[in-house]
């Protein structure tokens, strides 16, 4: 514990870089301050059993699209997890606070690359190990970005290993939780797929999933969920209201169609009607190919009159906040 306190300057508030399920995350330095890490200090609400469960889950995972656990410490009342540091912060921050933090908004290509990386991480959790892991809290603030903008799934405080017997208590984040899971109390990998469908809509629109403020002139807006509103916009052809203005005129129709096709399937009411995450991954890769290799007709403006720019690289101008 002495090393953890030294790494965080005794949990200095100035070192706080975010919150996670059941805890606060600090930026820390170890190995003689040569290695930067993210240190999660779990609170008492998590409980020792849940803490041990998270360690068990994380110890099984080794994948380039999942944040790596570097160590842990359980000392008296403290429960500490040490992770690799993700200097580019969260997908949530880049979608919603790019203007405030003077970051360049992501292009459509960049957003697709990030979604593909996150889907690869989830695919590994669902099918890449002996036991299936359901994350149960998939959202943009749990998708972190490393120094090369590679997306990684984070925060396994609510995850379940091999949830064949379902769950008696619904856990997750408002706006992202699978309604079938809420209704039947049955947790499956398709619950993660639903949550990821919400993430895809958030990536396209750059609107908050909760309090999304779709239209200041619309009455009773709060009575409609973000998912209902977004899907209604797409079905009515109201793309101007749905798509992030920064993407105006920069998405090929074929890419958008493929993206929305798989997104709608992710958000099916019944889990059996939803695709597997591997199918989602395949569709996102195809959406990227359709964007990059769209023909001249596909380059017509989706909404607006700006020209499509392909192959835009990630820029250091984005000034990220690490996690």
Automatic annotation (TrEMBL):
InterPro entries linked to this entry: ANXUR1/2-like, Kinase-like_dom_sf, Prot_kinase_dom, Ser/Thr_kinase_AS
Q: Which GO terms describe its biological process?
A: response to other organism
Task: Extract the Gene3D superfamilies matched here.
Answer: Phosphorylase Kinase, domain 1 (3.30.200.20), Transferase(Phosphotransferase) domain 1 (1.10.510.10)
Q: Which keywords does the record carry?
A: ATP-binding, Cell membrane, Disulfide bond, Kinase, Membrane, Nucleotide-binding, Serine/threonine-protein kinase, Signal, Transferase, Transmembrane, Transmembrane helix
Cite the SUPFAM superfamilies for this sequence.
Answer: Protein kinase-like (PK-like) (SSF56112)
* GO MF term list: ATP binding; protein serine/threonine kinase activity; transmembrane receptor protein tyrosine kinase activity
SMART domains, per database record: S_TKc
**Keyword check for rRNA processing:** no
Q: In what residue span(s) does the Protein kinase domain sit?
A: 11-288
Coarse class of the primary localization is: membrane
The listed locations are: Cell membrane
The organism's place on the tree of life at top rank: Eukaryota
* Cellular component per GO, a single term: plasma membrane
**Keyword flag Kinase:** yes
User: Which membrane topology term applies here?
Assistant: Single-pass membrane protein
- The entry's protein name is Protein kinase domain-containing protein
């Amino acid at each position: 514990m002495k090393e953890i306190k030294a790494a965080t300057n005794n949990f200095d508030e100035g070192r706080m870089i975010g919150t996670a399920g059941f805890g606060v995350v600090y930026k820390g330095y170890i190995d003689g301050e040569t290695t930067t890490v993210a240190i999660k200090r779990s609170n008492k609400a998590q409980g020792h059993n849940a803490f041990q469960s998270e360690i068990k889950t994380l110890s099984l995972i080794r994948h380039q699209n999942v944040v790596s656990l570097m160590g842990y410490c359980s000392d008296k009342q403290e429960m500490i997890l040490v992770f690799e540091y993700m200097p580019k912060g969260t997908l949530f921050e880049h979608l919603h606070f790019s203007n405030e933090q003077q970051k360049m908004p992501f292009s459509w290509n960049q957003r697709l690359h990030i979604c593909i990386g996150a889907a690869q991480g989830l695919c590994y959790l669902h099918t890449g190990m002996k036991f299936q892991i359901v994350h149960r809290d998939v959202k943009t603030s749990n998708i972190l970005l490393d120094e090369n903008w590679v997306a990684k799934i984070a925060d396994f405080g609510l995850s379940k290993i091999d949830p064949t017997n379902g769950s008696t208590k619904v856990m997750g984040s408002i706006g992202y939780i699978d309604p079938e899971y809420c209704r039947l109390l049955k947790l499956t990998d398709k619950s993660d797929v639903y949550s990821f469908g919400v993430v895809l809509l958030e990536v396209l629109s750059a609107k908050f999933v909760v309090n999304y403020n779709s239209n200041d002139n619309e009455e009773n807006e709060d009575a409609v969920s973000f998912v209902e509103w977004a899907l209604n916009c797409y079905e009515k052809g109201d793309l101007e209201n749905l798509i992030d203005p920064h993407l105006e005129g920069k998405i090929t129709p074929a890419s958008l169609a493929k993206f929305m096709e798989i997104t709608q399937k992710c958000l099916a009411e019944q889990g059996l009607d939803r695709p597997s995450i591997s199918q989602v991954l395949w569709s996102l890769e195809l959406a990227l190919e359709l964007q990059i290799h769209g023909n001249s007709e596909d380059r017509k403006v989706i909404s607006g009159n700006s020209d499509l720019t392909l192959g835009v690289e990630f820029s250091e101008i984005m000034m990220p906040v690490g996690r």
